[in-house]
Design goal:
Elements lengths: L1 H14 L15 H4 L6 H8 L5 E6 L25 E4 L1 E13 L2 E11 L8 E9 L5 E9 L2 E4 L10 H7 L4 E3 L3 E10 L3 E11 L1 E3 L2 E6 L16 E10 L6 E6 L4 E6 L2 E9 L8 E7 L5 E7 L11 E7 L11 E8 L7 H15 L6 E7 L3 E3 L5 E2 L2 H14 L9 H10 L7 E8 L6 H14 L6 E7 L5 H10 L1 E7 L5 H13 L25
Parallel strand pairs: 3-13, 20-21, 20-24, 24-25, 25-26
Antiparallel strand pairs: 1-2, 1-5, 3-4, 4-10, 5-9, 6-7, 6-10, 8-9, 11-12, 12-17, 13-16, 14-17, 15-16, 18-19, 21-22, 21-23
Helix pairs in contact: 1-3, 5-6, 5-10, 8-9
Organism: Populus deltoides
Protein name: VWFA domain-containing protein
Pfam family, one: VWA_3
Length: about 525
């Protein structure tokens, strides 16, 4: 889907060359105009993939491509575009982002306006909006204004009697490559301005005491409107709250922020500038919540006045602090790596590299093992091995010499084998990392098995983290399995990012400094629903 999207944009940019802007008016050079003939198709796809909120004219009839203000009387173009070409629209006026950061999440409200500059007057086309979101992004709402009408997104309850009808009406929206949401606005007239407000939430990354926010805000040159007198203004309002009344220490920022206010545990910033061209860099901001030692607490909130869910909510948080002498637990780690036929080539090689990089992060007192699987299982060792240089070197040889991709996918069998190997664990934290690119038919059986084992296995049961490769594996299943297994989940949609994201997942999931946390007050509640949120 992502590659098809990029191909449609590339064709749309080629069609946009038909547009006449007047004497001495030329659009900015695009990647389509400047890339070399030898450029890889994957590089081309990346260059046209949205890196900020974007709007595209959906063009099925090439003859409609025309400047709505200055006709150029181009020769008639026969045929249709199948699939439709996507012409990036020019962005006008003021682009605004309001960002609220608290604990480990950020809510982003983005507002912008695009002009349908490429469709002749009195003609109409659909407009597709693409919303790239940051880490674990989740769309919360959309508002659209076009001349003569406006619309907004609506949360639909599954119990609604008109559920299916409403879903069918809103069926134009879809996720593309995991973190980019696209939706379509039907029949917008050439020359009209489309105003969009999009709200989403995303995860703040946390590493070694530092929170990091990265919001897609890099606009390609071809969205800059043609003309010297068209004003462009960027405005970013950033509110940061530690949530716990602790001092915030700013570390870095990508844009020139001005401090508006400072309170204990809260800060406000503003970036407001007239620009010649739209931002070509993502917005990033990092900060520390200062504390020498580990600290935590519980926040309580009563339901809102008209909330249909009248239960009270609580947030239980723990910060590790800046005490560098605090050590993580000794670990016993088993890597379960998929070597089915679909992993052949780049996915398997990238997974091997990521696994070997993760092995290098183990401490000498840790132990490890590797289970490769397709429809069978293959063990590196019949027992857990100490993470010595010799053992890691031997594991490297085994991975490179013994493993080839072939056969189907059976996840339950190696999971049972890994759990059996870790059954006698004492005085350490057992951890399982599952790496796969596939989907299986027995997801429910796997989840039920793990849930049953962990329920009866005591406090030193293995923590299961999962890593998905590519777009075809069942990400929902892997996320659910990690949640049941008290672990973490991540994914890489292309082979090039597997190594980096695997190392990141391993570092996060294996840096355990607290375990067996209990909250006595929860034992007396009639009912309880917990949503996990982990660093």
């Amino acid at each position: 889907m992502a590659r098809e999207f990029a191909t449609c944009v590339e064709y749309g940019l080629s069609l946009s060359k038909r547009i006449y802007y007047g004497k001495e008016m030329t659009p900015a050079a695009t990647a389509a105009m400047t890339r070399s003939v030898s450029a890889k198709s994957s590089d081309v796809a990346e260059s046209y993939f949205p890196t900020a909120v974007m709007a595209y004219a959906v063009v099925s009839e090439p003859e409609l491509v025309e400047n709505p203000d200055v006709p150029s009387y181009q020769p008639y173009v026969h045929g249709r575009c199948e699939p439709p070409a996507l012409i990036p629209l020019h962005m006008h006026g003021v682009v605004t982002m309001e960002i609220d950061c608290c604990f480990d999440h950020a809510n982003i409200c983005f507002s912008g306006a695009w002009r349908v500059h490429c469709i002749k007057g009195n003609s109409k086309c659909d407009v597709r909006i693409a919303v790239p979101m940051g880490e674990q992004g989740s769309l919360l709402g959309v508002e659209v204004d076009v001349p003569g009408r406006s619309c907004h997104s609506q949360l639909i309850e599954a119990e609604d009697a008109n559920y299916k009808e409403k879903v069918s009406k809103g069926g134009n929206g879809r996720l593309m490559r995991g973190s980019v949401y696209t939706f379509k606005i039907p029949q917008v007239e050439g020359g009209a301005t489309v105003s969009i407000k999009v709200i989403w939430s995303q995860k703040l990354l946390y590493h070694e005491g530092q929170f990091s926010l990265n919001v897609p805000f890099s606009f390609p040159a071809f969205v800059n409107p043609v003309g010297k007198k068209i004003s462009k203004r960027e405005k970013i309002l950033l509110n940061v709250s530690s949530g716990v009344g602790k001092e915030i220490l700013c570390k870095s920022t990508s844009h020139a922020l001005k401090e508006l206010r400072r309170e204990v545990g809260k800060m406000g910033f503003l970036y407001d500038a007239e620009v010649l061209t739209w931002s070509s860099a993502d917005f990033s901001f990092s900060y520390n919540v200062y504390s020498k030692d580990l600290f935590g607490g519980v926040l309580l909130q009563s339901p809102l006045l008209r909330d249909i869910d009248d239960r009270q909510m609580f947030c239980f948080y723990l910060f590790p602090g800046n005490n560098q002498s605090m050590k993580a637990f000794r670990k016993e780690v088993i890597f379960i790596i998929d070597i089915s036929r679909s992993m052949k080539g780049g996915p398997l090689e990238s997974a091997k590299n990521g696994l070997l990089s993760s092995l290098q992060k183990l401490n000498p007192e840790d132990s490890f093992n590797i289970i490769a699987f397709n429809m069978e299982t293959y063990l590196f060792s019949s027992v857990m091995e100490q993470a010595t240089e010799e053992a890691i070197l031997e594991a490297t040889r085994w991975l490179n010499d013994k493993l080839t991709a072939d056969g189907g996918t059976n996840i339950l069998m190696p999971l049972k084998q890994a759990i059996k190997l870790l059954a006698e664990t004492t005085n350490s934290i057992p951890v399982i990392f599952l790496i796969t690119d596939g989907a299986v038919e027995d997801e429910r059986d796997i989840c039920n098995f793990v849930k049953g084992y962990l329920t009866s296995g005591g406090s030193i049961s293995p923590r299961i983290s999962t890593f998905g490769i590519g777009t075809y594996c069942n990400h929902h299943f892997l996320r659910m399995l990690a949640q049941i297994g008290r672990g973490h989940f991540d994914t890489a949609y292309d082979a090039d990012s597997v190594d980096f994201r695997m190392q990141k997942l391993f570092t996060t999931a294996s840096s355990i400094i607290l375990a067996d946390i209990t909250v006595d007050a929860l034992e007396h509640l009639d009912s309880l629903e917990v949503l996990n949120s982990r660093y």
